[in-house]
């Protein structure tokens, strides 16, 4: 089975005055294509840092990150930015939709900014699967939190990224909307064989993933490799 994400001895240290914070301290982590992985751990354990490293948002202190066969940190800043635009879909707790653009325009915006081809049939299908077809022309401000997050997920899926990374995507939603959003995200991921790595504090949400990876003090303590759950 294809390993789409692989980290080896990944380290990220932050210097704070005389202290060094070891946000990641030797992480070996693999995700295979089409897997839906939840990362859990206490606040400050290193979850967001790991997601940032996989998404090419920052450079590590040591170790390697491979995504879709590319070693990320051999890329310079511009190449890394292109990698992010083309290969990674991001979903955050705060939906980050552009308020003046309607749902459809928000969803296709990253493709337009990258000068890519918009596959309208595919975008329409995603909007249908995420139950947003009636809301294509609505502005984000007129939508519920769950609908806004589904629009953000549609945007992340629209250019068929190699990986979709979600940082607490249900953090701002009530329980009902959280399960709704997770269910639809999972369904879309299955349908497109989309690899998803998701951070959550919520054990119920994590249970919906194919595999749960637990991180403590910058190290993975459970679920690190793809065969752990089998
Ligand atoms: N830019 C930074 N500069 C200094 N320290 C940082 C920076 N980013 C993260 N850290 C530290 O690295 C550690 C890991 O942070 P990280 O955000 O990855 O944790 P987390 O598990 O995602 O936490 P939370 O669940 O609260 O979001 C923490 O001690 C944090 O304070």
UniProtKB/TrEMBL annotation:
Q: Which top-level group of life is the source organism from?
A: Bacteria
Q: Which GO terms describe its molecular function?
A: ATP binding; ATP hydrolysis activity; transmembrane transporter activity
Q: Which residues form a coiled coil?
A: none
Query: Do the record's keywords include Nucleotide-binding?
Result: yes
**A GO cellular-component term linked to this record:** plasma membrane
Query: Which InterPro entries does the protein's record reference?
Result: AAA+_ATPase (IPR003593), ABC_transporter-like_ATP-bd (IPR003439), ABC_transporter-like_CS (IPR017871), ABC_transpr_LolD-like (IPR015854), MacB-like_ATP-bd (IPR017911), P-loop_NTPase (IPR027417)
Q: Which UniProt keywords apply?
A: ATP-binding, Nucleotide-binding, Transport
- SMART domains attached to this UniProt entry: AAA (SM00382)
Fetch the CDD domains from UniProt: ABC_MJ0796_LolCDE_FtsE
Q: Name one Pfam family in it.
A: ABC_tran
Domain ABC transporter positions: 5-228
Put simply, this protein is called: Putative ABC transport system ATP-binding protein
Q: Which organism is it from?
A: Faecalicatena orotica
**Organism lineage string:** Bacteria, Bacillati, Bacillota, Clostridia, Lachnospirales
